Amino acid sequence: MKIAVGAMLYEGNTFARGETGLAAFQSNYLFEGAEILERLIDGDVEVSGALKVLQASGATIVPLIATHGGCGGKLVAGCFEELCSRLLSRMDCDVDGVYLALHGAMVCADEPEPEVALMQRIRELVGSVPIVVTLDLHAHITPKLLSLCDAIVGYQHYPHDDAFETGVRGASLLLQSLGGRARLTSRMRKLSLLVPPTTAGTRLPTPMREMYRQCRSLEGLPGILAVSYFPSTPWAERPDGGTAFVVVTDGTAVDVETHLEKLCTVLWRSRSRFQPDVHLLEDVISLTAHDIAGPVIVSEMSDAVGAGAAGDSAYILEKFKHSAVQTPVLIQIVDPEVSALARRYGVGSRISCVIGNKVENRYGEPVELTAEVLSFFDGAFTYSGGLMSGIRATVGPSAVIRARNITILVTDRPAYEYADEQYAAAGLNVREFQYVVVKNPMNFQQVYAWAPKRFGLDTPGAGRADLTKLEWESCQRPFYPLDDSEEAIYRST
Hints:
The structure is a single chain. This protein is of the alpha/beta class. Helix content is about 25%, strand content about 25%. It has 2 domains: about 1-275, Rossmann fold (3-Layer(aba) Sandwich); about 280-465, no CATH class. It contains 14 helices and 22 strands. The chain has a 9-stranded mixed sheet. A 6-stranded mixed sheet has the order 3-4-1-6-7-8, with helices on both faces. Strand 7 (about 130-135), helix 6 (about 145) and strand 8 (about 150-155) form a beta-alpha-beta unit.
């Protein structure tokens, strides 16, 4: 068997003002051809899992490209086409099957349905051979995308710590099809329900945890090979956005529609439990001002790079600057101008600058600071978990500066934040601060579970958790949480 293997992942945010180009993919990983086998065979990403399975089967692997651009605003014009061209140029039209790892929530300036466009071009090249695609569970699933694949499989976990296993599952399904043991068939149903990721973890007592259990039990039934849930990222606004379920069967007679209906009904009845528990910073400070044990973890999730925001918000910095807090505070802000300024003056110098709110400038002006330059950091770090576990990435040349009690890691570029890898790589120990500002919508609840207190903040931004406060433009009404109904509201499939 000859099997093509590739990956092209990116999660977009249509509410964000930033744009992303090819450099973001290069900052994470962008491997081509044989380099994929050399660099990812012992990795933890989707392609790594797929390669292990396919190599063990004796298949001949045709490596395409494997890349992850992280999250951000729209891809600039030409970026998607460049990546597609690199992938398609390596495709062997005589392959017996195709495995692809995609995200499912890519947003481009010049292509309205990028994953569909890519799959259409692959189908034209390879014909009717089996194609299995693995996706982030925040993918945007449509009937058109499903029709171009023999099977779609999503991550089971959020936080995403099962990318490798998802690649194993996808490649195993492909081998079942190629070996004649299954005639892969996929069906979907989609609710008009948008879910804030901050309340949708599968390791916490949430409705998605219950969906995890139900889907795993369905996979134990005869004929059902995979059941996936896709609460699409609400920050990539689509006319038909919502939460989809996909069931993959082996082609035998299975009452798929009944199973899909039940899953949708159970989730819809739990919809009120998705309302986020978020706080104003002033209230958090009031609640914790006299706490001795630290740190207090506060998540400015609205500026989460992992949600596609710019990572340059100075909204919380401004709040701390004018608060009565005197204990140590740690914050990270993307601002290449300030990073360069600090480098120009050197360690030990004092600089006057305006920081943050330069890309995302709708919610405040850049903040004026006089700060001491403490250290520099080349920006390189290794992800300790999540969907890019083990990947070496960079936030670019960075500086650590301190204004009174506030220490700021100023980075040259944004990068997905899983845990405290970026702080640690810069020599900052989060346990030495009373307040630590992180910028992720849900991971912080697990990775900082050891911290005495953790709060999600209600702040403005492109990735805010309270979906009712976003400026919706194209998502077709009705949809929850803007609209409600006792009976489930469905998207047309």
